[in-house]
Amino acid sequence: xxxKSHLDSIDVFKKVAQAAQNANxxxxxxxxxxxxxxxxxxxxxxxxIDFTCVGSGIALTEEVAKQFDFHVPLSVFKNFGTxxxxxDDWELEFVGARKESYRSESRKPIVEDGTLQEDLExxxxxxxxxxxxxNQDNYGDLLDPFEGLKDLKSKIIRTPLDPNVTFSDDPLxxxxxxxxxxQLDFDIDADTFFALTANADRLKIISGERIIDELNKILLVPxxxxxxxxxxxxxxxxxxxxxMVALQGVDSVDDKSHKDNFYHTLQVVDNVSQxxxxxxxxxxAVLHDIAKPATKRFNSKVGWTFHGHEDKGAKMTPGxxxxxxxxxxxxxxxxxxxxxxxxxxxxxxxxxxxDSALRRxxxxxxxxxxxxxxxxxxxxxxxxxxxxxxxxxxxxxxxQKLLEVExxxxxxxxxxxxxxxxxxxTFGLSPSKIVGEIKEEIKEAILEGKIQNKPEKARELMxxxxxxxxxxxxxxxxxxxSK
Length: 483
What we know:
InterPro entries: HD/PDEase_dom, HD_domain, NT_sf, PolA_pol_head_dom, PolyA_RNA-bd, tRNA_CCA-adding_enzyme. By secondary structure, this protein is α+β, with helices and mostly antiparallel strands.
């Protein structure tokens, strides 16, 4: 297979080839760019290209930079023998061919100069161990010493060398195996998968940041359940996410069983993924039932219950985020909120739902109400298609009612129509419990529909509440309050 016409169509390759000839360095395009080119998966966004030369990658980079008429930012990493050039739509990385050896306690290799063959065999998978020549004698030829092309056609993830060696040397490759299988919808070769299970405990030497980066990439594929099933079957998931593993399994007492919450969760994640690419909404799907094992109880009258799992799950969320090295910011709070609220809309799937209940949901969800409704729709999983259809139609009614109530009462982003400062100024109060009580009663009155969400109505009620508490104004209210 030859890619001369493709190389000739892109100026970058012509310049690198010319630089390689000038420097007398045997040079190849390697890695993911080659794989995606063979698959026809050329990306339209920023393109990353890896080049390997037999010799100094830094010397090659310096020669490539001379090929451009304008200044090209050059980044050199002498300790690693690599260098990088950044162009408008391209990020080019150059490295000399090398061979590697590892120590058991670290994934950092001992690196030595090597041949192209040695450079390709150190790579993680055969589909990433192909090269395209930029040399005059075989320009454009695909070099494939480990049959990566065959594995691409067969849709197989396989290591170039013994997978036990590959994974023991660098255990992060185990997460990458599942990530590539998920992204490409490939199978994992039997021997390679067996090595995953045999070396799962080696994941302990990998940093949490590296693991979560791969997990997030798995979670962002169109059907994340496939990757999570592989993680579970290989025991990798057990190494870093025991709370999710605990969801798996079905208990039965007196012929009463509950559903397998692990596979239910995966179905919810897949359902959400059909609606949104939002990583954090997908994380909410992962964690929405995470506290069911901790809240599982059996009652002889009603069977299995999981009372309070939404509140317990919300409390567990920060700890899980912290341990997994996920961000402890508004993204965590978003996930926590959805976990806490995910049962609320289900309770509103009734014809007689009150405006008060709708207002409270809008108040609690705020701008995240649309994401919450997506999660709730995704949470409807049943083999009974008629039941699913009925629930989803009821959610349509709830969403319509939410729109009507929001348009009328504007409580999605509730701001108190009377501030604490105004209460203190009106009654000559200092910060105290009574100020908070007045504010809370006004809020409750609005959410219950007793008064409109308007400043003048809130001030009238404020006077009544204060009077009942023996507190009277020391200054006049704005004229609007008397209308």
